[in-house]
Design goal:
It is a single chain. 79% of the residues lie in helices and 4% in strands. It has a two-stranded antiparallel sheet. By secondary structure, it is mainly α.
Length: 89
């Protein structure tokens, strides 16, 4: 029971973070007002994940850090989360 609740909550959390990263990418294309409260919240939630990846994921003028962050979330962190939850409960 608790295991399924934690797995479902984790799934929704990781999907929400992935959604925020995609919104960050779309915002970088349109250059919104940086003083907008919603833009500040989205950048504040995603930049701590994307900033360390920018050292390794910039190829010429293309920033691949959101793609790298999504790959790390989907193939490394979420399976590790699932493994931890299933081994504890």
């Amino acid at each position: 029971m608790i295991q399924s609740i934690l797995l479902r909550a984790g799934f929704y959390l990781f999907e929400f973070v992935s959604f925020l990263i995609l919104i960050n990418v779309l915002l970088s294309w349109v250059r919104p007002d940086p003083n907008n409260a919603i833009v500040k919240i989205i950048y504040g939630l995603t930049e701590p994940m994307l900033a360390p990846l920018r050292r390794f994921a910039i190829v010429g003028p293309v920033d691949l850090s959101p793609f790298a962050a999504l790959l790390i979330l989907q193939f490394l962190i979420y399976p590790l989360y699932q493994w931890i939850v299933t081994s504890i409960f």
